[in-house]
Amino acid sequence: MDQYASALLAFPPQNEPADNETYHKAAMLHIQRISKMIKERPKDLVAFSAELINVIDPAVNSLSYLAILHALIFPSLAAKVPQNFILEKLTTFLMVFDGRQCRYGGFPLLDVLDAVGNGRLLPPSVAVECLATAILKLDPSGTILTSSHILLAKLAYDTDNIEPALPVIEKDIVYYPGMANYHDAQYPCDLELPPPLYISKTSGLTTLLKNTMVLEYDLLCGMMYCARREWWKARKAFERVVTFPTKDTGCSKIMVDAFKKWILVSLLSEGRHCNTPPPYTSESTLKMFGILCRAYISFATAFATDDVEQLKLEVQNNAQLWVEDGNIGLIEEVMASYQKWRVLSLQDIYTKISIAEIRAQTKSAETGAVLNKDEDVEALVQNMIIAGMLNGVIEKNDDGTKFLLFLSPTTHLSEEEMAREIRAHTVRLRGLKDIFTATSQRLGTSKEYIKWVIKDSKRDKTSDGQDLTLTFETQIDDEDLMGGIPNH
């Protein structure tokens, strides 16, 4: 056993080298030694596993710890070692492992993450937290979508353990496995590397993703935000599905499902459905949406009016459709929010309005009638203010009449709060800098952009004075722009 312990504790050296080349060579040599040990004497490793794993620090000797865990878990949990012991060690490892070391973890690490993400080893609440932590240890920026993200999203949504997954799903995805112009780096341990240079199919830390997997991930993210009633975030997630590049002038069922939900959460987040989707949505896809989602568009049109009877009629006529699409819950949320948005629309006309007038001018979509008494309207308005939906205060005149005073968004912001807002926006803009740089580099080297530049250089310059509507987005070929993601 001492021989095995000595080998497993050999990396990293006590005086860990700072330069990437030395670290890389030491890591590769250690992997070769461990692989040889597992290949020649796998039974010995399992036999001494309990003793070995207790003398190895998962946060320091992460690769060695991973090797023992993998030997204990695959092809099945070791029969001679207590299962609770193995799972306890697995949980500890996923929470504390060294992200730099585990860039060399490859397929064994991916096997472990897959097993956890499939819900085969740990309770869902533990599995989601461990998987989310592991993903961000490998890529603290959270900007590359991996096969582990897909498992995390499915497990979190299906088991209603959404909260622990939020640190991952709230990250902006910039990279995808197998993207053009990104190859495995010479030294994966370099902490300055963008994630696609060390997280790839060849490094073993992810599999390639099919188009449907990317779409499913964003759809699940949107549904998780819906479960938390974070409508704006849900809208952005569904929008990523709706605007996904397509071939053959069509759209998938997932895109249609997302478009329906996108309409509903748009009503919840903004009080209206935007009739002009993002400009990079293909025209043919929009036509398909218009045909397949006609009932939702009609419902959204009615929602934007004061005709509550027409809105109720739209809901009743398509009752079966809402159920079949799995959107009855969102429809009910939209109907419950209708009167709130009608109250908000009054600020376009009034700066101050009595509670009695609000009651007379707005109706509940759930009943189709005005509220029974002024106190009900006051409670509705107070709830809107508390939830942050409405910026206003309720005042009372000397005669007892109560009014709603609409306030400007910055009325109650102190100097300190304003400074905090500015700092938050500054941090956000700094975070966008790397994303902008990576996107610009990718666009500049894409064949679609180069073709457009050549075509634009040959364009008849006499047309410069015209109202040109053809831009790069409208002239690119109808093909998958997610370089490296295989079609399915």
UniProtKB/TrEMBL annotation:
GO terms for cellular component: COP9 signalosome. One of its GO terms (biological process) is ubiquitin-dependent protein catabolic process. It comes from the Eukaryota. InterPro entries: COP9_N, CSN3. The keyword Lipoprotein does not apply. Residues 51-175, 210-283 form the COP9 signalosome complex subunit 3 N-terminal helical repeats domain. Keywords: Cytoplasm. The keyword DNA-binding does not apply. PANTHER family: 26S PROTEASOME NON-ATPASE REGULATORY SUBUNIT 3/COP9 SIGNALOSOME COMPLEX SUBUNIT 3 (PTHR10758), COP9 SIGNALOSOME COMPLEX SUBUNIT 3 (PTHR10758:SF1). This is COP9 signalosome complex subunit 3 N-terminal helical repeats domain-containing protein.
